[in-house]
Each structure stands twice: as structure tokens, then as C-alpha cells.
Amino acid sequence: MSTPTRLPLSFSERGPGGEAPRPPMPTPSSVTVHAPATIANVGCGFDVLGLCLTAPYDVVRLTRRDQPGLTIRHLDDYDLPTDPNRNVAGAALLALLRAVPEPLGFEVEITKGIRPGSGIGSSAASAAGAVVAANALLGNRFSHKELIDMAMYGEAVASGVRHADNIAPAICGGFTLVRAVQPVLDVVALPAPALWVAVVHPQFEVKTKEARAVLPTSVPLSLAVRQWANVGGLVAGFLTHDNELIARALEDYIVEPARASLIPGLGDAKRLALEAGALGGGISGSGPSIFMLNKDEATAHAAAEALGSVYRKMGIDFHLHVGPIASQGARVVSEE
Hints:
The chain is of the alpha+beta class. The chain has helices spanning 88-98, 122-137, 144-159, 167-172, 208-213, 221-240, 243-249, 255-259, 266-275, 297-314; strands at residues 30-40, 49-65, 69-74, 105-111, 175-180, 186-190, 196-202, 280-283, 290-294, 318-324, 331-335. It folds into 2 domains: 30-191 and 327-335, Ribosomal Protein S5, domain 2 (2-Layer Sandwich); 196-324, GHMP kinase, C-terminal domain (Alpha-Beta Plaits, 2-Layer Sandwich).
């Protein structure tokens, strides 16, 4: 994965023509970041694969202050904790502040566009958006890898586990593979084909901790081999833009069967979306959202309508999201 180079500590070097160096650009005192939703697992890749969406997204505004510490305000109706140690963005920022030698703090305002417990990376978006915003206020001194490691502390608050399958695409964009978390974080950013994603978010909550509690603690070796083959096949399909291989490799033999009972309508939704032309899909993260990958925009809208029809018939409110895989993760949209 390519990572941004840290800014130099001095600007004494001469320019290529021998001219005096330009003075460093002043860093802003406040930035606003859009931090996007993400799809984790991507079918067969439990805890290792993820991709970035264009929408929905959280809005995170950070203002730098010289006094140490954090103050957090949520400008939404989700009643999330504002204690930095219990807030996903706060925990991520505390990790970043531990890596900064100078005393400073931040005022944080978060407007969540991604409902908590939706399965499309709500906690990851806030954590990723916070560290990307702080990094901008610090002259972009940290690499993507370092930001991912810091933001994972936010995921630990949300789920009890420092996992990066949502965090990595939320920061890097595109399609990502988390090869390892321990002993050293190893994330690979992979180019993704120009696929479109259809997501249905039924308006009920599946908590990540509860979704992890139903997972098997052991699986037969023969089943594990089939799963490993699909992970390799899906990565190869993305790299070679082979839609037929992607479709064959999206099946999850281990995690989705264990979680299917938590998501009414899952089987019918997938079946109808496939009939509408989708390549394949499954549970997004821990659910309840369901994603389907599609070869183009028209097919994605048809798949979204098929997904929504199941929950309309069941009398369950739902939201639909349709868009391409996003090439960019959390990004600064304004500076002051």
C-alpha cells in the first residue's frame, strides 16, 4: 500500500533550480471531513476484505486547540456517548494524541449520516474521519497505515475488537485487504473494477458484539479450504476485472450461514437481486444491511429495487444506497 510521505522537519533544502525554498503552507485551525460508509467482509473475506462506498457518510469537524484534551459534540439524534474513552472518534483521537509530542487537543463535532448498527461501517467512519481530520490539522504527518492503526482503537470501543476491515477502506478508499493486524499491521490497498454497489439497510439494528457472538469457534477443514479459495478468487477477480470470477467467489460458507437468522428476508433479497442481474453479495459487515455488487449503474438500481421489494412486502422500513465503489476514503472538504 502506498502511504503519504511525512512532511520534512525543515525547509532548508534548495529548490531544483537553486532558488530559495518556499515557506511551508500554514496549516488550518479547523477542518471538515466527509467519512464514508464501507462494506466489510465482502462475502467470503471475514475481517480481512473491505470496500469503500460513496454514500452515506459522516461529517466530522475538528478544531485544533492548544489545551490538551478532547471535547466531543454529536449534532445528530443518536445519543452517542461524548466521553472520549467511550466514543469511537474519541478513542481514535486519544491514540493519535499519544503519538504527538506537543501538547494539544481538539474540539470535535460529529454529524452521523450512517446509522449506528447498520452494518455499513458507522463506527469506522467516525473513527477514520476523526484521525484524517486531525492529520490534516497536523500537516499530514502520519501515513495511512498509522492512521488505520489509530482508528482501530475506535473499533475496539464499538465491538471489543481492534479490526481494520472497515477502517482500511474508510481511510484508503477502494478495495482493501487486511493481511495481518498482529504482530504488525499489514494492509494492502488494491485497485477495484468499476463496479456499482446496491445496499439495502432494513431499519432494525444488529449489534456487532451480538453478531460476533453467534459465530462458530471452529470450522471443518474442508469448509475452510473452500472459503480460502473464494477469498483468493475474489481478489483475483477484482484485479483482473473478471466479473464471472467475482460472482463465483462471493459466496460465504462460514459467517453468513451463522448470521442469517439475525436478518429476516436475507435469502429472498439475495435471490431477487441475482435475478435482477447482480453479480452477488451478502451481509454487509455484521448486518442488517445487505450489499450486492453489479456490473453497471442500471443493474445496481434494478438490484436495489429488488432488495427493497422484500422489506416493503414485510412491512419493514428500509433505506437504499446505490453508487460506485469509491476510489477515495475520508477526505477534507473544507478548511478554516
